[in-house]
Amino acid sequence: MELIYEGKAKRVYKLNNEWLVMEFKDEVTAFDGLRKEVAIGKGRLAAAQTAFFMSYLEGNGVRTHFIDWDGDRRITVRALRIVPIEVIVRNYAYGSFLKRMPMVKPLTRFSKPLVEFHLKSDELHDPLLTMDDITEAGLLTREELQEIINTSLRVNDLLTNLLSTRGLILVDFKLEFGFDGSGRLLLADELSGDTMRILRNGKHLDKELFRMGASAMDLVKAYAELNALLGIKS
Prior knowledge:
The protein is α+β, with helices and mostly antiparallel strands and 234 residues long. 30% of the residues lie in helices and 33% in strands. The chain is built from 6 helices and 15 strands. The strands form 3 sheets. Strands 8, 9, 10, 11, 12, 13, 14 and 15 form an 8-stranded antiparallel sheet that branches. The protein has a 5-stranded antiparallel sheet with strand order 1-2-3-7-6, covered by helices on one side. The protein has a two-stranded antiparallel sheet with strand order 4-5. Strand 4 and strand 5 form a beta hairpin. Helix 1 (42-59) packs parallel to helix 6 (216-230). The longest helix is centred in the middle third of the chain and has 23 residues, at 142-164. The two termini are 24 Å apart. The model has no long low-confidence stretch (mean pLDDT 96).
């Protein structure tokens, strides 16, 4: 397969004109790559989480790019034209929200989920975008933006309800979207502890642990705990 992209957490290979293979790396980074460690087993755990969540969403009517998981570190996905925007859905006050709104106490639950847009750019530190920013730049139409908002809120409802049945709290998460060959918007990228903040009894089972100073192996143990709670065989 042809390697067409390598990021901090994944490699992407071209399988054919319609399908790609995403390989999850046994590495963990934080602070735009300033902290980086090897995390043996993390790739398989994160791939399993993505396969689990994407399959669950597909079963509940959400279109995704997910096709299959090889049981290890690779998933097969549909090739999409990716929108260069990250969508953040927040249920509780945490992370960058607190930096711009310091008068809100950490982990305050919002009266309704917040949906944010950020430009995908490590160099610019993923700046916050308004809807007008996005439409004026020609990245999306108003109708496409509204579809993304509606889908993101639907994903939030589904994941929040699923995780709550396991005693887990979904603090926030990141989504990406892309267009397929027919012009349909599909959920893309991954859904794992790398892109979600999930609490159990106040403990993070996500990459926030690593940001807070835990070791890479502590993070792997947390991902394994999350998979066990969700019944993911990984």
